Amino acid sequence: MTIPRAAKTLRRTRIQEEKEEQILEAALDVFSASGFRGSTIDQIAEVAGMSKPNLLYYFRTKEAMHRALIDRVLYTWLEPLRAFDAEGNPETEIRSYIRRKLEMARDFPRESRLFANEVLQGAPHIEDELKGPLKELVDEKAEVIRAWAKAGKIVKCDPYHLIFSIWSTTQHYADFDVQVRAVLGQEHSGEGRFEDAARFLEQLFIGGLRPDPLGG
Amino acid sequence: MTIPRAAKTLRRTRIQEEKEEQILEAALDVFSASGFRGSTIDQIAEVAGMSKPNLLYYFRTKEAMHRALIDRVLYTWLEPLRAFDAEGNPETEIRSYIRRKLEMARDFPRESRLFANEVLQGAPHIEDELKGPLKELVDEKAEVIRAWAKAGKIVKCDPYHLIFSIWSTTQHYADFDVQVRAVLGQEHSGEGRFEDAARFLEQLFIGGLRPDPLGG
DNA sequence: TGTAATGTTTACCAATCGGTCAAATTATCC
DNA sequence: GGATAATTTGACCGATTGGTAAACATTACA
Q1: I need a surface site. Which of A196, B12, B120, B188 has the fewest CB within 10 A?
Q2: Domain at B5-60: CATH code
Q3: What is the pLDDT of residue A212?
Q4: How far is the CA of A3 from the C1' of D4 (A)?
Q5: Is the minimum CB–CB distance between B37 and chain A shorter than 8 Å?
Q6: Residue A131 CB: number of other CB atoms within 10 A?
Q7: What CATH superfamily classification does B73-209 receive?
Q8: What ipTM did this prediction achieve?
Q9: What pLDDT does residue A5 have?
Q10: Which residue stretches of chain B have pLDDT < 50?
Q11: How open is the CA angle B72-B75-B80, to the nearest 5 degrees?
């Protein structure tokens, strides 16, 4: 007889690990492309290359799949911000934060779109994460930035909106990729666009945050 | 007998205008909140306060509704960029473009999310608009910016990525509103956040684009 | 005021949705 | 190799999906 699924997590089989991996990979594909409501279990099952009931053997509901996916991806997604170092030099810290975020937009666009879809549609499944861990992390880093400003290392500015602007400008290249490509045209839509973006954004932020020479 | 719907558009009745208005208003609500695939005709019908078949009397399919909505909103949405004036002073032009875009994010968040949802999910319904009218408009304004840079009025930079960065930073406050609110916390989530954002973004862009005093 | 055009509703359709079930199959371990 | 646990499948469920047909109600206009 099949053991109750709750007990399944006590010890995980080789097959379980492989299949769950397979499923979450497919789920990332589908959820990031259509959002939660717009995605169907059948789609995910097809991409994962298994039957729907088989998929539902590993994740009992669509919600459970989505949750597992969010949980797996969220920590990694916040890594660049976590790496933001209070001890470091403001200019190099901001520069490398922008770089890292742009690299993630380039290398993990599906992850970016997964969150974008979720937040865009009111974040019904990740509200707690936003108000909890995310807010705390941002609060912490905002303090760092504020300290830099107070010390005259960068211009006085609202640290929260600074962080928002780095998020939005970098993630734009993942979330709005088709629009970026459409506007740039075929000739500038190669991978070089990330280098161009990096150059521009560093110029913008470093220039825009340079401390007022008058010390104002 | 009911005349074929194709002929309906020859002359529009009072009722037609009212009801189509009602429907598109409801459709904006629903599509912007759930994306095309995630939205249902039933939802829209309920929000519009009419029966589903009645709604389908005015728009034969879900696609037709979506298309009509996009068509109606797109022109307005591009208005701020169109207002970007080559003759004007770069600093004030950029400043007022940011202001206008932020005002739209504040006053028309549903419109912003409608496009964000669409682009995020691969822009299956507006690809032509992106590659056509949008690209042409951006190309034109990019030339203006390039000329400013050449004349030393602003720093030399990639005009396309500049435009992208203004889009992304401003629309962020509409598209990622829940995240912004969650991170700012209750105390800073009032309407004042748009003023704070405006102040920061103007500081960032004006500072970041200020021409190099060495003339480099 | 009559009537033709327009608008609305009820009842319905096939397809798809998320999910269940029991039977069949495969892997594991003694 | 056999028992037992783990995995997979096909058949199926009720609810919801986008959309239709036709009867019914209302409006506009001569």
Answers
A1: B12
A2: 1.10.10.60
A3: 74
A4: 11
A5: yes
A6: 18
A7: Tetracycline Repressor, domain 2 (1.10.357.10)
A8: 0.92
A9: 45
A10: 1-10, 215-216
A11: 140
Rounded-to-integer distance, Cα A111 and Cα A105, Å = 8
Distance B2 CA to D24 C1' (A): 13
Q: Which residues of A touch B185 (CB under 8 A)?
A: 135
Structure tokens at A111: 């992850």
* Structure token digits, residue B12: 């529009």
pLDDT along chain A (216 residues), means of 10: 42 80 98 96 97 97 97 94 91 96 97 97 94 96 95 96 98 98 94 96 96 62
Q: Where are the domains of chain B?
A: 5-60, 73-209
3-state secondary structure chain A: CCCCHHHHCCCCCHHHHHHHHHHHHHHHHHHHHHHHHHCCHHHHHHHHCCCHHHHHHHCCCHHHHHHHHHHHHHHHHHHHHHHCCCCCCHHHHHHHHHHHHHHHHHHCHHHHHHHHHHHHCCCCCCHHHHHHHHHHHHHHHHHHHHHHHHCCCCCCCCHHHHHHHHHHHHHHHHHCHHHHHHHHCHHHCCCHHHHHHHHHHHHHHHHHHCCCCCCC
CATH architecture of A74-209: Orthogonal Bundle (1.10)
B/e letters for B130-167, b = 16+ CB within 10 Å, e = fewer, are bbeebbebbeebbebbbebbeeeebbebbbbbbbbbbb
Which of A42, A74, A195, A204 is the best substitution to test chain B (most B C-beta atoms within 10 A)?
A: A204
